[in-house]
Amino acid sequence: MQKALPYIAILVSMLIWAASGIFIQHALVLFRPFTMIMLRFSAAVLLMLAVGLALKGRSTILGLQRIRKGDILLFLLAGILQPVLYYILETYCYGSISSPTIAEALLSVGPLIAPLLAWLVLREKVTLFNILGILISTAGMFMLVLVGSQNFDIGQPIGILFAITAVCSAVMYTIVMKKIPAHYSPLSIVFYGQLTALAFFIPLWAVIEGRACMEEGWMLVHNVPAAMETIGYLSVCSSVIAFILYCYTVRQIGVTQANAFNNVRPVFTAIIMLIIFGEHLPIGKWMGILLIVGGLFICQYKQTTNHVRLKH
Predict the structure, then answer these.
(1) Has residue 7 got a pLDDT over 90?
(2) Does the pLDDT of residue 230 top 90, yes or no?
(3) Residue 307 pLDDT level (bands cut at 50, 70, 90)
(4) pTM for this structure?
(5) How does pLDDT run across 263-275, given as a tens digit for each residue?
(6) Residue 1 CB coordination number (10 Å)
(7) Taking Cα atoms as reference points, which of 43, 62, 283 lies closest to residue 190?
(8) Ramachandran region, residue 123 (left: φ > 0; alpha: ψ -120 to 50; beta: rest)
(9) Helix spans in the chain (H)
(10) Considering only CA atoms, which of 117, 249, 109, 104 is closest in space to residue 189?
(11) Residue partners of 231: CB distance under 8 A and separation at least 6
């Protein structure tokens, strides 16, 4: 059971993030974009501070620790890479590429880039099963995303650069998490990273939307229960629980294998849309789901003999 925990943790985090898009769409009806981001991360940071202080010294996962001076740059870099850089680049990607389908596909190539960056930066061992599984799973992801779509217009080519840079930023975030000394708890890593992001987003909010919030109100549509539901989910589930579970898994199984699970997010999204909204899934999408799941099993397979690895 202990060996299965990292895999259960990352599947739960992917399920939470898969549902986040629905809540973000609802939140953007109620709040301006930067107001939504600022409220989301403010609530997440306050929650992690309370939990972390309450469990300080009593939990290796949820206890909050002080940062040693020599590690400050790593924590700052983690916060800048994700969510700051990733969120900004992702936004510009969707704004530059005409087809949301193409944008989603480009933003999902992280598992292809992760093995190379993990090998270059961490010298993380990559097996042929890792590579084969990632290729099969990514092929399934493209089938799931592209089958049935009708708009394949690229729009501005610079959008491709935004997408690839966003993906590299997300992968580098996992690499930085892996490089942070092992004695830090997952909550500490996520807390300081999101505190860095909050320090960056608050001035942006003040410049872009602060005056409008003060003069016209914080909410575009006054619906307090809906606001509490959306911000509650995005802060507690997406920004706290999912990030901590993801951090825990990366530090347990490594960058390459953890990033491979990003391909399962479209699967969960498709299933959510099927169950909640009754969206039809053509046979091509089901085939894509099977490829994703099969590829993940192959990627996680551990060879006992004849390892073939990338070597420096």
Answers:
(1) yes
(2) yes
(3) very low
(4) 0.86
(5) 888 888 888 888 8
(6) 5
(7) 62
(8) left
(9) 5-30, 33-54, 72-79, 86-96, 100-106, 110-122, 128-146, 158-179, 186-205, 211-216, 224-232, 242-253, 255-260, 265-277, 283-299
(10) 249
(11) 27, 31, 36, 39, 40, 43
